[in-house]
Amino acid sequence: MPALVLLGAQWGDEGKGKATDLLGGSVDYVVRYQGGNNAGHTVVVGDQKYALHLLPSGILSPGCTPVIGNGVVVDPSVLLSELSGLNERGVDTSKLLISGNAHIITPYNVTVDKVTERFLGKRKIGTTGRGIGPTYADKINRVGIRVQDLYDESILTQKVEAALDVKNQVLTKLFNRRAIAVDQVVEELLDYAEKIKPYVADTVLILNQALDDDKVVLFEGGQGTLLDIDHGTYPFVTSSNPTAGGACTGAGVGPTKISRVIGILKAYTTRVGSGPFPTELFDEDGEALRRIGGERGVTTGRDRRCGWFDAVIARYATRVNGLTDFFLTKLDVLTGWEQIPVCVAYEIDGERVEELPYSQTDFHHAKPVYEYLPGWQEDITKAKTFADLPKNAQGYVKALEDMSGAPISAIGVGPGRDETIEINSFL
Ligand code: GDP
Ligand code: IMO
Ligand code: MG
């Protein structure tokens, strides 16, 4: 059965873009199922580097049809500029399909995101400021604008009016901002509508027919398990479901169709924005991980917070996603340490805890319990097979696999497509 989900097992930026691109040549469809242009997925092809925010990473594989599913939130201005940026670099984007049920990030959603964060002050989430949370809030409040609404001016005007009725009260009276004019928003959206029209399709029907025809479909998650609105470190999360179930709701494909769920797992841990992070480092090791790993946000340019590998989180990701495999990335970044600490459990208020606590308070109190694994000094970026890795690097991978609860089927030893050790085939 040819439907695979590929998702982040930590707090995002695990290397999903590279992993998706790697499989892109062998699959028929790559589908984004949640999130929006808060994502920043880096793909390196030869000497070319691409940063994708909204488009599925499969867009770089000529044989593959990229799909933006109903669960995604679409900022039309970002979509169009990302498409033209790729076209200028010679990438054919004409096969793109966008669900008519995907929700639109309107200019007022972006404004609300920014002013809300400012209003929260110290308690801010540290969002990407792209309007993600407010757009999903409108969707749940049933005042959202969908892609299909762009094609009926009267309906669009009514919907924008309904959304702005309340928002303008909040913007003017609470946030002391100017009201947003309905006409101006409608005009802007109508301008995008025509440009997007060729891509709009019934993606649910197309994907289900493709699966019936034994085509291979890859669902590409944005963000990561610990940023999931239901299963992450709420409230320091994004406003969608990057976890495996999100692929079903965000693409309209039943769970019985999914055959494999691959968790992308960085060999250490990073996080962007606010929220608890038990293995975070504030010393020179954290600085070294940031420098060697190039840990700077693709979307916002913020420095990523860095820390050691956390096996409690990896086990949790295995459980809530039903992971069948891991793709371990950035092992090369750990070259050069004499020994590498790995968090195997937490100590919470004096007690050893093996699994992620469900209580936010407990998680905030969690201190990492470390085991120290022997490091390696050899360059591993040219390794092609597991046997090419130095003994201690092999030991590190095996230890992470044992702790995390699913087989590690591929290992990244560099950002390029070919800098990958394949252990078990994903297809
Ligand atoms: P994503 O959001 O999960 O797609 O990840 P990002 O693109 O935000 O961040 C991952 C970064 O690590 C990118 O710069 C990738 O090019 C890079 N990368 C991915 N896999 C590897 C790897 O195995 N080794 C190294 N050194 N870099 C990698
Ligand atoms: P990729 O797909 C890392 C974080 C933000 C913030 C929180 C909420 O590249 O892994 P939002 O704008 O979504 O409302 O912000 O989520 N965040 C990410 N962190 N990688 C991402 O995407 C992220 N997308 C959102 O930093 O803490
Ligand atoms: Mg990223």
TrEMBL record:
Q: In which pathway does it act?
A: Purine metabolism; AMP biosynthesis via de novo pathway; AMP from IMP: step 1/2
* Catalytic activity, reaction form: IMP + L-aspartate + GTP = N(6)-(1,2-dicarboxyethyl)-AMP + GDP + phosphate + 2 H(+)
Q: What are its cofactors? A: Mg(2+)
Which stretches are transmembrane?
Answer: none
Q: Which terms under GO biological process does the entry name?
A: 'de novo' AMP biosynthetic process; IMP metabolic process
Q: Where is this protein localized, as stated in its record? A: Cytoplasm
Q: What class of enzyme is it?
A: ligase
Entries under InterPro entries matching the protein: Adenylosuccin_syn_GTP-bd, Adenylosuccin_syn_Lys_AS, Adenylosuccinate_synth_dom1, Adenylosuccinate_synth_dom2, Adenylosuccinate_synth_dom3, Adenylosuccinate_synthetase, P-loop_NTPase
Keyword Transport in annotation: no
Question: Known PANTHER family for this protein?
Answer: ADENYLOSUCCINATE SYNTHETASE
Family from the record: Belongs to the adenylosuccinate synthetase family.
Q: What does this protein do?
A: Plays an important role in the de novo pathway of purine nucleotide biosynthesis. Catalyzes the first committed step in the biosynthesis of AMP from IMP.
Q: Indicate what this protein is called per its UniProt record.
A: Adenylosuccinate synthetase
Q: Which organism is it from?
A: Streptomyces nodosus
